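W.,

You were right to be curious about this one. When I first looked at the sequence I had no strong expectations either way, so I just let the prediction run and decided to look at it fresh. Below is the sequence, 385 residues in total, followed by the output.
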Amino acid sequence: MPLSSEDALRLNVLLANQPLAIRINESSMTLHGLLQGGQVAVKLNPEGFDEKYLKQVRAFLSEQALGSPGGYPLYLQRWTRMGQMREDSLEQLLMLGDQTAVFAVVCAEGLTAELARRAWWVAEEAENARRMLQTRAVAESETGRQMARYLIDYLPFETEPEAMMESVCVALQPGLLDEETRLRLWKKAGRKSPYLVGFIAATPDDLPEQLSDRPDFPELSRRLAGLVGAGNGMAALCLRFLSGGGQTFIQTCARILQKPPTQEVVNATLDVIRHYAGSIRSEGDPDQALEQLQQEADSFIDTSTAVHELLAIAPELLPEIRSMRILSGIGYGILRPVLKGSDAMGSLMHRKLEPVMTPLSQEFAVLTGAQDPGPAFNPYSSSLR
């Protein structure tokens, strides 16, 4: 089905003006072009079925931009598999008026702030924003701020916890949201634990409503200053946990684990905790069960020079050191023995996780100096079921 003569003329005129990007509104059968000085709209006049006609329009655009109308379907398959194209093809892909082509651009390593601006004009979608905000240049641009606001406004319509966590995390990058919006989001997070996961992932040491330092923090900070200055990572991490930021982080993690909606939320929270304490475990995620991590922590204390240096100055920190070492290794490995491939959610998931979460809550309690963990640090106790 060829293009109508009227449409062919208008599209050629549009392309002669060297548009920066093209999008197609299929419901109104209108093609929009982004120009240097504004925008232009071309009302399409299909001859026959709209779907077939749009295929011809995109084939025409593909021929002009890529020189290959016949290869257009093949390009789509390749983008889907690879998630990106060569950097020198990114501008051309935004000329096709196709969502798959746009997604190839937003996932490309060569994405720039200008390409992101054009891609966002073509397709304002949450997934596109999440992908593009992972690029620093985009996150630092005005378009990045627009995307962050869009993600926050769109949060009530998200249904998947994973999307909620990622949206909040990327939107909370420095400079994207004003403080008022950030605090409003924090208050909403009280009812949406996936939002809290986004907070602890994005700003673990700068969460709203900061708690006070642990009472012994000032004295320990003075005593351990020399070790921290000499590069003792164990001492530095200990002070990080005992500071107000660290105490708020622990309390927030415990809050998330009280009633997580899905296993993904639990796993993501454990990953954030492991990363927070990861400076003392250079080998990364050990993927071990909790019992193995506890045994390994005891061996680590016996053999680590950094630990011995720290204990020589502050021997009372032995329990904290052990807890930090355990937390530096937690992840799906501690969940696997109790979940065993289960897709349980809600109260059933909580019961399955109790053998892991109850001892884990004790490690939280050690770091806060709590003598009795109580419900806040024991989210899976029978009193909460």
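Here's what jumped out at me. The longest strand covers residues 30-35. And, maybe more interesting for your project: The chain is about 60% helix and 5% strand.

Coffee later to discuss?

I.
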